[in-house]
Amino acid sequence: MAALWRYPVSSMGGERLERMELLASGVLGDRTHGVFHAETGEIARPGRMRQWMALPRASARCAAEGEVEVEVSVDGQDWHGSGSLGPLSDLYGFPASIRRYAAPGEEGPASRYAHAPIHLLTTSALRTLQAAIPGSVLDERRFRPNILLDTPQDMGGIPEYGWIGREFRIGGAVLRGTIPCVRCAFTTLAQPGLPDDREVLRALMQGFDQNLGLYCEVVRPGPILPGDSVALPEAAVA
């Protein structure tokens, strides 16, 4: 295992975890909130409109494990609760608010990720893309996986595609691969340590069918630690 990530606020930078708790619905505390324009109520979509493109320059974290409150930071040093968003609004250039997504059955904006609760990416996939664009600065933050899986240096291609429809175990959880992860312009946006780079999406469209990584569903909930072993995929039980 290379890294575990959670993104409490959609489209903002996330937090690296030393322990990940997988529920049937996905990672505890993951993508539970969104950024909205405080005056119009419009939800931010940075891969589609220029006014939202600064979103990944700030980060979010859960205030405490198991709690619904989030904290945000524009510099990774000073953290503020969602009721104090002046610095975030200054960075983004519009009055920002952070709101929790509506739960199933509730009214209001719903998370776009319910169909794909877990996103897994291998280091092989990153190396394969890097070979296509050697001048680009790549790391997993451009692609926002929950699980970055370390694969041998001599393993090429995108091995996770072979896990579609199959069950595999990571730590105390069992996952099933569902569909490749379709990529958008978010992969090109600047964030701390990563410059704006349109070549990333261009390469994905030209040589990767605009996909990279794998969406998964949780078959058996459980905890995952960075050092946990990964069992090779086995055929799913009918």
Automatic annotation (TrEMBL):
<dbReference type="InterPro" id="IPR005302">
    <property type="entry name" value="MoCF_Sase_C"/>
</dbReference>
<feature type="domain" description="MOSC">
    <location>
        <begin position="96"/>
        <end position="233"/>
    </location>
</feature>
<dbReference type="GO" id="GO:0030151">
    <property type="term" value="F:molybdenum ion binding"/>
</dbReference>
<dbReference type="InterPro" id="IPR011037">
    <property type="entry name" value="Pyrv_Knase-like_insert_dom_sf"/>
</dbReference>
<dbReference type="GO" id="GO:0003824">
    <property type="term" value="F:catalytic activity"/>
</dbReference>
<dbReference type="GO" id="GO:0030170">
    <property type="term" value="F:pyridoxal phosphate binding"/>
</dbReference>
<dbReference type="Pfam" id="PF03473">
    <property type="entry name" value="MOSC"/>
</dbReference>
<dbReference type="InterPro" id="IPR005303">
    <property type="entry name" value="MOCOS_middle"/>
</dbReference>
<protein>
    <submittedName>
        <fullName>MOSC domain-containing protein</fullName>
    </submittedName>
</protein>
<dbReference type="Pfam" id="PF03476">
    <property type="entry name" value="MOSC_N"/>
</dbReference>
